Amino acid sequence: MRADAVIVGSGAGGAASAWALTRAGLHVLLLEAGPRFVPARDYPLDTSDWERRPFPAPKGSRARIRYGDLGGLDPGDASLQSWNAVEGRTPLPARRVPSRSGYAHVLGVGGSTLHYVGEAHRLHPESFSQARDHGAGADWPLSYGDLEPFYAQAEALIGVAGPVEAGARWRSAPYPQPAHPLSPAARRLAEVGARIGLPFVANARAALSRPRDDRPACNYCGQCSRGCPIGDKGSADVSFLRQAEATGNLTLIPEARVTRIEMARTGGVAAVHYHRAGAAHRQETPVLILAAGAVQTPRLLLASGGADLPEGVANGSGEVGRNFMETLSWHSTALLPGLADSHMGLPADAVCWAENAPGAVPGAVGGCRYTSAVHETGLTGPAAYATRLLPGHGTALKSRLREAFGSAITVGATGAVLPDARSRITLSTEESDADGLPLPVIHSVLTRNSLVILHHMARKARSLLRETGAGAPVEEFGSWDRFTATHVFGTARMGRDSAASVTDAWGRSHDHPNLWIADASLFPGTGGGEAPSLTIHALALRQAMRIAG
């Protein structure tokens, strides 16, 4: 088929690209490795076993990943060990290990926005010049002001609900939807946070507080990460992609696994090769946009090298796969006598930005933020209490469960990571997938800077819980001993210097003029713990304007 542009990946970046380019009149072919999810079928939250149903994993919706160097553990940091009241504290391993979910990435139409919580954050303006101002990390080749119009455009399209106060993130227009009401646990944190210099405000959420665009308002079931069955959450499938398909200019092919980028003699991209339903296909394209995420995008670039490009496609700088960054996370949970119905409301409905700027954490470069995190940690049903928070069995456990359910209060913290030479994506030399593509290997090592931020976040989370009047923590877990990442960045970063970056400020390859990247692999930095989807949207919309122009 003829296409003006081919996009690989239909998550936050690929979907926004498809929307903008089709609206500009271009014919777009969108290749998605995973299946198309059907909300009414795949996200059943009205059955008695709902709590035992995580986000669904139909065939082909999870990529195989391998892990390399995740770093060793110093017993001196053991206060950061993950534990809960039921399982207790296990013997410390010698090295960090992947958690049960590891790198939580969804292959499917809509990508990882299908199971994201829905936080819709703009990066702190100071994060764009962190290296210049604080001497660590890398600067962005653009500013907050360059992205602001596209932040606003993305917020309007997906229907972001947020507070009146703008804070450090100045705005050209108010949020398109009023903020959601705070849940019982969030209200308690907001009450005490102000007393200790950690004020909480309503979080910006990609969930409708008012009906719009044939989508209903949120019903506050609190199960965003299990998939939204009614369509109020602003995932890419019900927002960008639905509108792009309505133009008639988008051809979306699910379960199409791209295996190779074919280069032309002129130095540009000639075509992509993909497998679908047991058949091999070749698709020519004048423009290729990679939006497969910060693991799969560098994997494809590295695996597409040949005799003329022995280090891989777009890798003249040698930076493809390097500068891998996760976000640091910490969660502390306690039971608060008198608190009721903490399982109700929206996930991450309240946020504290007081320490979000790059210089806000003493002794480190990079900031962090705090949220009310009962829902994100899955404490929304009795099974989670019984298996994690309340030891015992039999009638005594049932009695404690009846008394304690709804009283959990959790402080979640998310912090910045600086790029490090040891943290990167490589290709496995031992194992390939069914299409013959080498598996990606994640290496992610915590630096001393990361450890300072982790200890700081744990101290502040525990302090907030004490201020509420809660008892001692009954569960704590974080990034120190378990690699768990939904937000990863940096493996094809943008920059002004072609010797130290993969793309320019528009996401266009320094090496190949018709190759563009539109996902979080572009990020030179992580920000101060912000969720990345809105920034991915904004970058993709800005890039699409450039391509269409």
From TrEMBL:
Pfam families: GMC_oxred_C (PF05199), GMC_oxred_N (PF00732), NAD_binding_8 (PF13450). The keyword Acyltransferase does not apply. Residues 209-238 form the 4Fe-4S ferredoxin-type domain. PROSITE patterns: 4FE4S_FER_1, 4FE4S_FER_2. InterPro entries: 4Fe4S_Fe-S-bd, 4Fe4S_Fe_S_CS, FAD/NAD-bd_sf, GMC_OxRdtase_N, GMC_OxRtase_C, P2Ox-like. It comes from the Bacteria. The keyword Flavoprotein applies. Keywords: FAD, Flavoprotein, Iron, Iron-sulfur, Metal-binding, Oxidoreductase. Its cofactor is FAD. Belongs to the GMC oxidoreductase family. This is GMC family oxidoreductase. It comes from Roseovarius ramblicola.
